[in-house]
Amino acid sequence: MKTLIQRGLALLDSPAVNGLALLVVRLALAAQFWRSARTKVEEGSFLTINPITYDLFRDEYHMPAPEITGTIATYAEHALPILVMLGLATRFGAAGLFVMTMVIQLFVYPEAFWNPHVMWFGLSAILIARGGGLFALDRLFDRRLSLAAPPRTSGFAH
């Protein structure tokens, strides 16, 4: 029985299982921000910002310079999820989404911490700490650019 449990734990600790788990984390986080990004652009366009976006940033979010903050947020909500989904510069993309979540939390919806924001913090923190995993494009550049997590021998923590 002990051997069976050890084999099961070894399987769960394998790079493939960890890579699949990180892929799920990447897709879950990216999907949230991608859907939000698509609400800020004209229907049928890729990056033509809907003028209503600026009204939203001015009237509901009370952000300074709504034309600038709305534009930055829209482009970031498109670019960063793509990086995270592909696992390309995963830590950078996740850090950007973490910062966006922090801005949303502190300045837009400070009363909504336990809603989706805590999940976004958690998912992005995992990717910042762990990288994109085995099934990330970062792996292709690992030796040259050190974008992926260093190889591990066991467990999620050392």
TrEMBL record:
Highest taxon in the source lineage: Bacteria
Principal location: membrane
Keywords from the UniProt entry: Cell membrane, Membrane, Transmembrane, Transmembrane helix
Protein name stated in the entry: DoxX family protein
TM ranges: 82-107, 119-137
Organism expressing this protein natively: Sphingomonas ursincola
Topological type in the membrane: Multi-pass membrane protein
Locations listed in the record: Cell membrane
InterPro entries: DoxX, DoxX-like_oxidoreductase
Family: Belongs to the DoxX family.
GO CC terms: plasma membrane
PANTHER family referenced in this protein's UniProt entry, alphabetically: INNER MEMBRANE PROTEIN YPHA-RELATED (PTHR33452:SF1), OXIDOREDUCTASE CATD-RELATED (PTHR33452)
